[in-house]
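Before relying on records like the one below, remember that each one covers exactly one chain. Contacts with other chains, cofactors or solvent are not represented anywhere in the record.
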Amino acid sequence: MQKRFKLVWVLLIALAAFGVAAQDRTSGGIKGKVRVETGAPSGVAVIVRQDEREVAHGVTDRNGEFLITKLPPGTYGITLRKPGLSVGTIEHIEVKAGKPRSVGDRLILSIDEGSIAFIKGSVFNQDDRSAPNVRIELAKIEADGTARKIDGRITNEIGSFTFRLTPDVAKYRVTAKPNGGDAVSKDVEIDGPAVYRVALSLKPAANK
């Protein structure tokens, strides 16, 4: 009797496993890999849509990979979202039963320029002409008044430069360091996502 009970139990487990496997063969999925212009590719929300309805969702792992399963065969679209990055979409993804549909590994989310702060500047020489190839240093001014260098640039052919920053409230110091001249600095206060412009006019080197 005990052996018969064990046999029935084993058969029930096998039938249940077969049912799950059969159910998996009737559905499909979507998988892919997301790359980002800045930051980590993890934590990107993946929203699966069908006929403008959200039907499933997931999130990318630390490598930017995602896998959405148990989708009935059909046509889907996905939306990719992460704060600070542009929203990405892919449409007309045909999902068939049996295995996930791959959308590739070239999904790149760029920076959302509406959610960051820009410091854009121009450097002019003593004749009020654009000054190319001038070293620009960006420092963050700490609460105690000290300036901590965080980035650097060289002005382009028209004497311009750009720094991209988080929109947090902060104060920065932009310094132009020309060859054969004195350094010139200006402070810029950031209080949100916007474009902050600064002009730096170089002075003749001081006689020593």
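Residues 100 and 161 are 46 Å apart (CA to CA).
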